[in-house]
Amino acid sequence: MNTTIMLFLVQDGITNGAIYALLGLALVLVFAVTRVILIPQGEFVTYGALTYATLAAGQMPGTAKLALALGIGAFAFDLFVARKALHGRLIVRSALTNIVLPAIVLALTVYFAAQKPPVAVSIALSLVIVAMIGLYLYRVAFQPLAHTSVLVLLIASVGVHLALQGLGLLFFGAEGQRGPAVLSGAFTAGSLRFTGQSLTVYGITIAFIVALWLFFGLTLYGKALRATAVNRLGARLVGIRTTLSGQIAFLLASVIGALSGIMIVPITTLYYDSGFLIGLKGFVAAIIGGLVSYPLTAAAALVVGLVEAFSSFYASNYKEVIVFMLLIPVLLLRSLAAPAVEEEKD
Amino acid sequence: MQSRLPIIVFAAVMAAIPFVPGMPPFWIVLLDNIGLAALVAMGLVLLTGVGGLTSFGQAAFVGFGAYTTAVLSTAYGLSPWLTLPLSLLVSGSLAVLLGLITVRLSGHYLPLGTLAWGLGLFYLFSKLEFLGRNDGISAIPPLSIGTFKMLSPGSIYYAIWVAVVLSALLTMNLLDSRTGRAIRALRRGHVAAEAFGVHTPRAKLLVFIHAAVLAGLSGWLYAHLQRAVNPTPFGAQAGIEYLFIAVVGGAGYVWGGVLGAAIVVVLKEVLQSYLPLILPGSGQVETIVFGIMLVALLQLAPGGLWPWLMSFLPERTGGKKPDTSLKLEQRPRTLSRSSILLQVDKARKQFGGVVAVNNVSFDVQAREIVALIGPNGAGKSTTFNLITGVLSATSGSVSVLGKKVDKAPPQEIVKLGISRTFQHVKLVPDMTVLENVAIGAHLRGHSGPIASMLRLDRADEARLLAEAARQIERVGLADQMHQLAGSLSLGQQRIVEIARALCVDPMLLLLDEPAAGLRHMEKQQLAKLLRDLRDGGMSVLLVEHDMGFVMNLADRIVVLDFGTKIAEGTPATIKTNPEVIKAYLGVAA
């Protein structure tokens, strides 16, 4: 192997690793706050990417309708939970966030889809659509289970993944898609070529890591989220609305997922079911970070990206085998390092 | 036996189904598939529902079973009957390999770990040359007896359902045994089980292997039913589906696995054949419905359907009382009154900067009741944990009969005749009082899992249950023997813990706040019981906050405050000790 190939592989690994880092961060975030191991994170990626690609191609993405449908579901759940003490303000507020908002976005989507919107509009619409899906999804699928064990949440998360992946096929078809570059242009340094797209990837990843760090370290909401993660009941007793924390976590996770998708869809062709594998690799990174540490997760994600890049060069057939088997020794080390405290399960 | 009747009826019904005139052949195919899924789900019931280990990777073991027979019967021409033990062996030994790693994983790392190797193995199946890569292996010979070849779904039907019924029987036998109780205790955490000598990683590995062998059996049958294998049915999706089956049926129940398999297989079939009529042109609608139903099920009936169905049946009347004339071997008791049983010497435990126990020394002699008292946070329970091996001391030592046991795990401490109760009750709530107490006698039984499955353990088992029943009578809970432990009051549960500890046949009994939650009369009974035990040759070390109880009972009292021993002596001297009064009342006397 010569240096050029090696540098190329490193670059490739870092670009992928940056995406895995973002996804890993989202997974850590969601797990820390809600205890949900978010398998459908990958679907947020494909939904974001394919919604963007579909819009850019001047077509109507089905995800906008899904957002409205889930919003109606969330509204129904809100009404059902509050059925004993319904009052006007609550109904209006729930209707505004759960029905009016997605309805407006749907209308905008229909309007813009017909006239091949500019890149910025497509990105904005895709982000909003997927963010709403994430938000309502938490309300409909996970919030009613918030008090249950990690295991029940994990199984539910698998169920959500199956449903979303199936819907993905319905919306986007079995064909892969690519989207237009977010930032075109490129420059060369030595033998390496940096595209605007890959620079965007690096920039956004770093920005997000810093933003999350600031958010959790300095803002009241960030601290409330961390408090919820440590002790749900305790957080409620001091007046933190734990459901709100869960909603914020899912909102952030879906935005991060969609953004990751939008960043990679100009580089790689994505299919309706590509998200699962991409998400899982973010997962490997998140687990290396112990599902709690942001910087460790980011570093681990780069390692995963590099391992993947090099193993696809040396043993492309066994690329996935290697990446997933990488997880086992990590899990083992994690378990040995922190032996299970007596857990009182139901 | 009464409990066997429903199984015999079930087996008879299943045997008769193919003879029903006009039975559509397609239904038989469905029943074959249900049986195959039920085998895997049954393993998962034991693994997840009973043992508390969630696996997303069971499909990989089905793959091992299927590929083993596929390779051996095509490339090497072995008879399928010869490949059966080999398939089971391959699944079983790979389970040992994967299990050794997996059962060390804690908490949610475990299901994630299974997801990881499940995926990794799937990719391996689809890349390996000798497994035929993505195309798999075809032209697998059918099962045959003499010249009769099981070519049709109707003929292999019997092989599948005999396997299902036999596996269910063996699995249920296993659960209703010494090993089974150890497995059922796993889900409630490992501290209590280990305090009675259960080697928890080994018990976990055992269920892991059991589940894998059942999956391997399913795979072997699958290969000879389809007569071809490819990687698709052994991927992560299938692994998730098996878990779904177990959850739908009721993850804690062997027959829940069978029920779940029936529901899911039929549902999938219905969805696949009718959904395209409603929503034409979409390939994967059934997975959407599937996913949504999984979430809905968890929200509406997280326990699964089997317990829900069973709740319609009349309640089982209490079980038979064990024959208490059967005796277990007892520990020789040759200690004289003044010999030192337990010696704690400058024991120290630090958690980071906090010194929970600060160079504490005391001893317990034979036939003596010693009380360990002190305000909250004095380090009493930590001292208990140091003695019983749950925690290891930062420095200092603990000796039993002159032998140092500092680094010994709980399983070794209990062998020396030291048993304990817990401050926060650690019983298995969905097991009866009798079964809970019998865990205490775990080390005094000998039957292994294979003997239990084949019911060769009955004599051993009867002696264990007799001992348990005797101890339950001794603590005065004979009427509650067959109730579920979770249905008892907290005070009674503490007494059940004492009975469990007595089943060890201990020399030293460690009781952590035994009188908490008891009424006055019950406290008096407990004090009498403890005095009787002492007079019978046992020593007792107890932590207790009820001063009246302690002062009337203890021979000697050790007082801790902020991890340090501040006084030791008879109740009379402790009552007037200024240091003690200061620690409790906060003023100088």
From TrEMBL, chain A:
GO term, biological process aspect, one: amino acid transport
InterPro entries per the UniProt record, alphabetical: ABC_transp_permease (IPR001851), BCAA_transport_permease (IPR052157)
GO cellular component: plasma membrane
Protein origin, superkingdom: Bacteria
Record's bilayer topology term: Multi-pass membrane protein
Subcellular location as annotated: Cell membrane
GO MF annotation terms: transmembrane transporter activity
Residue stretches spanning the membrane: 17-37, 66-83, 95-113, 119-138, 150-174, 201-222, 248-271, 283-309, 321-341
Transmembrane helix as UniProt keyword: yes
Keywords: Amino-acid transport, Cell membrane, Membrane, Transmembrane, Transmembrane helix, Transport
Family note: Belongs to the binding-protein-dependent transport system permease family. LivHM subfamily.
The protein's name in its UniProt record: Amino acid/amide ABC transporter membrane protein 1, HAAT family
Species in which this protein is naturally found: Bradyrhizobium shewense
Automatic annotation (TrEMBL), chain B:
Keyword Transmembrane helix attached: yes
Signal peptide bounds: none
TM segment ranges: 7-28, 34-53, 60-78, 84-102, 109-126, 156-175, 205-223, 243-267, 288-309
Gene3D superfamilies: P-loop containing nucleotide triphosphate hydrolases
Compartment(s): Cell membrane
A cellular component annotation (GO) from this entry: plasma membrane
Top-rank taxon: Bacteria
Database matches in PANTHER family: ABC TRANSPORTER ATP-BINDING PROTEIN, CONSERVED COMPONENT OF ABC TRANSPORTER FOR NATURAL AMINO ACIDS-RELATED
Known function: Involved in beta-(1-->2)glucan export. Transmembrane domains (TMD) form a pore in the inner membrane and the ATP-binding domain (NBD) is responsible for energy generation.
Name listed for the protein in its UniProt record: Amino acid/amide ABC transporter membrane protein 2, HAAT family /amino acid/amide ABC transporter ATP-binding protein 1, HAAT family
